[in-house]
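User: Design a sequence. Structure:
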């Protein structure tokens, strides 16, 4: 039985090696794939649900998952559509994304392809706003997966990951409202959730999410840390300071580490403290995957983090 499953779109990544460079490094990303790899590197049994094309990039993703011990038998190969691609460029204002994903294999995924038995037997299922935004059929599949998981008593986690290039704000709000009503754990980023709720009051945001039925919130607030909230407790868990060079995938790393630690038995605050360190360490190198730390590196940094807290 796979402990943690994630559904979404895996992508080939071309990351600019330094600002203004003409050199690009091939890697692989996609928020939910990054999540799975982060969970696996923390020791969880993770598996992926989605689709790739019958191309070099699809093969590369399977090789990556194999190397990372991420189970991928529930990833289908679409012979008529390509694996999506994105580019990460860097300048003084941060990192920027450009995508070639229209008509990708993952965007053609439909509910009839879902491995429902595997979902029902997992410990956790993870999705993001991107999982629901790439197409109508993928949205239907994602919501059906969440419904299947909740009916089986499987923990559902959801990262808002708002991408307005993929859908208009009004639709994002409507669809994510439905998703939030089916998720137990919500992992929003500050910029996403303030846009979705048109509000920048931290506790009002938490109250709203709890009102949808979410049981546990880990609100990612960048340098301010992570605000962990339930109906009975609210705790600001401080960030772990590093010299960051590339924040690509840091939120995905946080999510994978957080859910892995919840499944392992940590309480929410301990899981957030661990995930803060993992996410911070992931920003010290380039690319969404290469810099995701393994558990040993995270534990090695936790003592310093505890002193700062």
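Assistant: Done.
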């Amino acid at each position: 039985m796979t402990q943690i499953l994630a559904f979404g779109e895996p992508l080939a990544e071309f990351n600019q090696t330094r600002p203004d460079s003409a050199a690009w490094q091939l890697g692989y990303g996609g928020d939910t794939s990054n999540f799975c790899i982060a969970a696996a590197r923390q020791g969880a049994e993770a598996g992926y649900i989605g689709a790739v094309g019958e191309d070099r990039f699809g093969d590369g993703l399977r090789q990556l998952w194999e190397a990372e011990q991420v189970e991928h038998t529930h990833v289908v190969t679409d012979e008529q559509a390509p694996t999506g691609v994105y580019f990460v460029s860097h300048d003084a204002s941060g990192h920027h994304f450009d995508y070639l994903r229209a008509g990708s294999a993952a965007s053609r995924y439909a509910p009839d392809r879902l491995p429902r038995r595997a979902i029902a037997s997992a410990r956790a299922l993870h999705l993001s706003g991107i999982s629901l935004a790439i197409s109508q059929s993928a949205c239907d599949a994602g919501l059906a997966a969440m419904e299947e998981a909740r009916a089986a008593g499987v923990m559902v986690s959801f990262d808002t990951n708002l991408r307005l290039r993929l859908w208009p704000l009004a639709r994002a709000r409507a669809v994510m409202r439905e998703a939030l009503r089916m998720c137990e754990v919500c992992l929003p980023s500050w910029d996403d959730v303030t846009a979705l709720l048109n509000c920048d009051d931290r506790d009002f945001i938490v109250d709203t999410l709890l009102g949808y039925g979410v049981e546990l919130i880990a609100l990612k607030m960048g340098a301010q840390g992570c605000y962990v909230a339930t109906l009975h407790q609210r705790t600001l868990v401080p960030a772990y300071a590093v010299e960051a060079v590339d924040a690509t995938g840091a939120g995905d790393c946080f999510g994978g580490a957080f859910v892995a630690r919840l499944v392992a038995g940590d309480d929410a605050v301990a899981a957030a403290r661990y995930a803060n360190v993992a996410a911070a360490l992931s920003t010290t190198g380039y690319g969404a995957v290469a810099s995701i730390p393994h558990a040993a590196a995270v534990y090695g940094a936790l003592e310093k983090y505890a002193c700062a807290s």
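DSSP finds eleven helices and 14 strands in the chain. The mean pLDDT is 94.
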